[in-house]
């Protein structure tokens, strides 16, 4: 969608004039939305949060705030503020559609599909709804193909793997976003990562984490370091110590680490010169 910047600037100026004249005006939500559409999400966030301090029950502001967090890629916060908007002001078709988009980003395709199918029944010509349903079907087919590949990989665990083979099999395990082998000097030897991730950045990060913890353990005579698990609210980073390199596995936050550890260990046992 093309954005008319001059129109947004005009809207921002008018809203700001009103807000300057009356700091208690609810126009702050429209001002924040204009900044959001212009791509100035930090400015939009600051205005929205400040305005909500004075108007804590203004549903439209929570909706704008949800869209700001969506643009920032923080879908959990977007969902939380959307729920607040719904609790205050109720539902509309546009709110339902936005909720479906958030649920897709939160890897909840079933809930998203339920909402989209209801919307589609009453508006079958809506291109946005149709495109989202098509993307869900495409993702479902992709997930099914991955599961098929996973089953094949699990059935092939009796084979002997090279490092490249082993990493390829690990990469297609459920919820694994990427895997690399990093030499002791921090150079990535081999890697399989989704396009949005950088082999070198992840490799450098893991190498720094591993070396730092290894040195700390040595100082307190804690023993030999075998592996490190770093968990955040968005992902997990699992670092495994090998003889000549470390293996770094980057996953989604909802991965079953116990199940993954079992499968990965079985794969690594079958590596040549393991």
Blueprint of the fold:
Blueprint lengths: L4 H17 L6 H10 L3 H14 L4 H14 L2 H15 L3 H13 L3 H14 L4 H29 L7 H9 L4 E8 L4 E6 L5 H21 L7 E5 L3 E7 L3 E8 L4 H13 L5
Antiparallel strand pairs: 1-2, 1-5, 3-4, 4-5
Structure characterization notes:
There is one protein chain. This protein has 274 residues and is an alpha+beta fold. It has two domains: 5-139, Serine Threonine Protein Phosphatase 5, Tetratricopeptide repeat (Alpha Horseshoe), CATH 1.25.40; 156-269, Beta-Lactamase (2-Layer Sandwich), CATH 3.30.450. The protein has eleven helices and five strands, in the order αααααααααββαβββα. It has helices at residues 5-21, 28-37, 41-54, 59-72, 75-89, 93-105, 109-122, 127-155, 163-171, 199-219, 257-269, and strands spanning 176-183, 188-193, 227-231, 235-241, 245-252. The protein has a five-stranded antiparallel β-sheet with strand order 2-1-5-4-3, sandwiched between helices. Strand 3 and strand 4 form a beta hairpin. The protein is globular and about 70 Å long.
Quick overview:
Helix content is 62%, strand content 12%. It is α+β, with helices and mostly antiparallel strands.
């Amino acid at each position: 969608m093309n954005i008319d910047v001059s129109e947004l600037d005009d809207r921002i100026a008018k809203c700001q004039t009103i807000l300057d004249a009356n700091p208690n005006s609810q126009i702050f939500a429209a001002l924040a939305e204009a900044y959001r559409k212009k791509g100035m999400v930090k400015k939009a966030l600051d205005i929205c949060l400040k305005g909500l301090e004075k108007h804590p029950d203004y549903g439209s502001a929570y909706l704008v705030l949800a869209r700001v967090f969506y643009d920032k890629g923080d879908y959990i916060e977007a969902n939380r503020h959307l729920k607040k908007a719904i609790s205050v002001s109720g539902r509309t078709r546009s709110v339902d559609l936005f909720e479906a988009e958030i649920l897709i980003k939160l890897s909840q395709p079933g809930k998203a599909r339920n909402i989209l199918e209801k919307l589609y029944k009453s508006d079958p010509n809506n291109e946005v709804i149709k495109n989202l349903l098509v993307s869900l079907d495409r993702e479902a087919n992709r997930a099914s193909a991955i599961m098929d590949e996973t089953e094949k990989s699990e059935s092939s665990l009796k084979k002997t793997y090279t490092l490249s083979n082993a990493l390829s099999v690990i990469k297609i395990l459920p919820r694994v976003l990427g895997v690399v082998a990093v030499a002791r000097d921090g150079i990535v030897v081999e890697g399989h990562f989704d396009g949005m991730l950088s082999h070198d950045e992840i490799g450098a990060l893991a190498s720094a984490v591993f070396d730092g913890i290894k040195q700390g353990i040595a100082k307190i005579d804690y023993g030999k370091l075998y592996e490190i698990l770093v968990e955040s609210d968005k992902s997990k980073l699992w670092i495994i110590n090998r003889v000549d390199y470390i293996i770094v596995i980057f996953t989604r936050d909802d991965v079953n680490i116990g199940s993954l550890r079992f499968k990965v260990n079985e794969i690594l046992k079958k590596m040549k010169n393991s």
